[in-house]
Amino acid sequence: MTSAHADGRSAEAEHARSLRVTMIDMKPRPFFARLIVIFAILLAMIVAVCGGVIYVSGQRAVRSQQLDHLRRLTPLIKEWVASAVAGAQTDEITPATRQRLRDAARIVDFRITLIGGNGMVFFDTDHDASTMDNHNYRPEVVSARKGEVASIQRHSATMEQESIYVAELLDPSRPDGVVVRASFPERSWNQLSVPGWQVVGGGVVAALLAVGLLSFILQRRWIGPTQDLVRTADLLAAGDWNARAQPRGAEQLQFFSTRLNLVASHAQQQLSDLHDQRADLQALVDTLPDPVLLTAADGKVILINLPAARLLAVSRGQALGQNIVHVVSDDAVLQLVDRVQAMLAPTNGDGDSPPLTRVIRLNRDAQYLTFQAVAKRTVGGGVLLVLRDVTALASAVQMKTDFVANASHELRTPIAAIKIAFETLREVYGDDATQTERCMSIIDGHLKRLEEMLGDLLDLSRVENPNLKPIVKRLKTADVFAHVRSSLGPMARQKLVELRLGERDNPERITPQEFLCDERLLGLIVKNLVENAVKFTPAGGSVTMSLYEGPAVDGGEAPVILSVADTGIGIPPEHLDRVFERFYQVDSARSGSAGRGTGLGLAIVKHALAALGGIVEIESTLGEGTTVTCTIPQVEAEVHSEEAMA
């Protein structure tokens, strides 16, 4: 997969995360309110339409009923009028008939009108007949004079309202005779019909009651349980896997709640197992001595062990979730990670990709460390980085190379000198006594040097043996000083160097009468330190060796401090870090003269102290002298046979 593809995948992952956050933060609109409002509006519309239809139908029914009543009452009115008319051509009726007609109209709330042959109204129960105009042009009157029984609904100009009219000739044989007209005005049928607001109001009340009942059923059976499911889903989406939905409501919702709780339980168990596995993985990688670091596809650190945190000088909390460029500051490591991320995804389908291996050097505390870095692309697009510390191995390889070179050089010089002296001796033997003596002296000196070198190599080999077990016993300080005086005193006197034993620069320091140590290893340490100090101290100088107790640690036995100080030529600061290497000599000329050392003394001291569990420190000032301080712990140990040192 290319870096562009990796960036695309990172963008998609970021988009998915933002979408999940948006979905979690998004508050759903109140479904119950929306459902009820829509249902109430629809129901109100249905009620309004139905009420209107009922009202119009009722009005029509009332009017039809009124019209039927008029038709049945018209013959009766004709009988009253026919008996009251004085003559066939007169338009007058008796006062008694007038009153009778008015009483009947008032009782049934009718309007009765009598129209003469000329079209003039000569009687009307609701209006003054003298003020009314000619009615022969009224539609119902026109139909009646044609011999029909007219039934018409129209607006009355006289009453200024809608009315229903029924008109009929008093004498069907006389078209120009009296017309009897009965009518119902609008005020009458409005009184008989139900008001529209009552119909609509009753429908609205019924609709509200229906909505309330439906709301209660929906809330109890569907809406409430659904809201509980939504809240539970929100809690689960937010990471609260302890949330559970209460199975209630409709059967389908109870089934869904049960299934949701089952899914949450499985997910919680899987997350718990994943958390335990991650903790186990973290504990496992923390026990590894090699730094391990794992990144996701977006470059953020998702796993780091303690050795890696120590190497990068960060805490685990500071590193996790941060981009690797903010955690690692070494260009060599970042370039390796970029190289792995730029690799194409594997095409074999098993998610396996070949790891990249590089040897890198990191600077830590002014010291270069060598690591074998192994980086591998993960299935998810991240990078697994393992740094194997091979500093000791690289140093050992380099030391081996230097040892072979130095040993070859150190052996070649005396062998060459012996060879030349022997050839010269063969030529002048018996002829030149002086030259013969000189050659014999050269051969003897270099043979001693070879013997010394072989002895040091043998001592170094012994103290480097990992199976070496110190033979710890109680040693007397006076015996140690006496041995140094007897073995190295002549060498010091020959060089005119004062050898001071047991003197201290600090009078508060306590010299122990006895202490625990390995006699053979201590002898090697003292011999090489004092011998080295005497060799590099000019005539008139001094070498001081002292033994005193150091500060106790954790209430244990106080360690013994061995100090050897000289007033010799000193060591340049740039050489102090390497003087404990094999064959390393500050004298760059490496003349190989008998007055010089083999370059193995301080290496023997270092490894002998390591076998005793001690440490060595060196301080030197060029032209003023050198002080070597050895800290030797006093530890009781098992007594072993001397075969380990044999």
From TrEMBL:
Q: Which GO terms describe its molecular function?
A: phosphoprotein phosphatase activity; phosphorelay sensor kinase activity
Keyword entries, A-Z: Kinase, Membrane, Phosphoprotein, Transferase, Transmembrane, Transmembrane helix, Two-component regulatory system
UniProt GO BP: cellular response to phosphate starvation; regulation of DNA-templated transcription
* UniProt domain Histidine kinase: residue ranges: 406-636
Kindly list the residue ranges recorded as spanning the membrane. Answer: 31-56, 197-218
Q: Reaction catalysed? A: ATP + protein L-histidine = ADP + protein N-phospho-L-histidine
Q: Which SUPFAM superfamilies match?
A: ATPase domain of HSP90 chaperone/DNA topoisomerase II/histidine kinase (SSF55874), Homodimeric domain of signal transducing histidine kinase (SSF47384), PYP-like sensor domain (PAS domain) (SSF55785)
Gene3D superfamilies linked: 1.10.287.130, 6.10.340.10, Histidine kinase-like ATPase, C-terminal domain, PAS domain
This protein's GO cellular component annotations are: plasma membrane
Q: What is its EC number?
A: 2.7.13.3
Q: Which InterPro entries match?
A: BphY/WalK/GraS-like (IPR050351), HATPase_C_sf (IPR036890), HATPase_dom (IPR003594), His_kinase_dom (IPR005467), HisK_dim/P_dom (IPR003661), HisK_dim/P_sf (IPR036097), PAS (IPR000014), PAS-like_dom_sf (IPR035965)
- PAS domain residues are 277-347
Q: Which PANTHER family match?
A: PHOSPHATE REGULON SENSOR PROTEIN PHOR (PTHR45453:SF1)
What protein name applies here? Answer: histidine kinase
What is the native source organism of this protein? Humisphaera borealis
Organism ancestry = Bacteria, Pseudomonadati, Planctomycetota, Phycisphaerae, Tepidisphaerales
